[in-house]
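A reminder from the course coordinator: this example appears on the midterm review sheet, so study it carefully.

Given structure:
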């Protein structure tokens, strides 16, 4: 008795099952990745809309440009916006206590670019990572993140006028 030969266009049964299982696992993996991204991004931006509306109602800001969150001793929302006369304001607020901590005009501060330039002049062997607004010891500050010449990850703080602030953290890499 002759064994029926399979066509070159048909695949063995085990291959069909393997491809089906691999496809299902791929779809489940992609679904998990999308769900995690949406969930994590939602946590990262939690309170931004509330902070924007609170800043509009409690300050002179009429147009919101940017909302960010600073995680220091407590969670501080930083709202950057424009007044009616196009002057920029930076508002530091504690949404948990529904309290405006400080409001600063950008005319009174260095811009982020100026702060970064001032820092670069003082630390030429460093690798810049990030700069953001922060709030430490009841004072608005810049938080600069960089890797210094000794290969440490550094969080350095400066006042909004560019003066050194008495707080700095340096983390050494574990070898």
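Designed residues:
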């Amino acid at each position: 008795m002759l064994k029926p030969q399979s066509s070159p266009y048909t695949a063995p049964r085990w291959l069909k099952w393997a491809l089906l299982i691999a496809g299902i696992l791929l779809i489940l993996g992609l679904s998990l990745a999308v769900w995690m991204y949406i969930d994590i991004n939602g946590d990262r931006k939690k309170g931004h809309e509330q902070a924007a509306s609170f800043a509009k109602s409690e300050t002179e800001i009429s147009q919101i440009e940017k909302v960010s969150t600073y995680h220091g001793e407590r969670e501080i929302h930083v709202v950057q916006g424009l007044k009616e006369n196009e002057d920029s304001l930076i508002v530091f607020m504690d949404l948990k206590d529904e309290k405006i901590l400080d409001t600063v005009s950008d005319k009174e501060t260095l811009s982020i670019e100026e702060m970064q330039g001032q820092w670069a002049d003082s630390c030429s062997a460093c690798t810049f990572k990030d700069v953001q607004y922060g709030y430490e010891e009841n004072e608005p500050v810049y938080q600069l993140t960089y890797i210094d010449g000794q290969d440490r990850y550094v969080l350095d703080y400066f006042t909004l006028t560019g003066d050194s602030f008495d707080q700095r953290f340096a983390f050494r890499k574990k070898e």
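The mean pLDDT is 86. DSSP finds three helices and eight strands in the chain.
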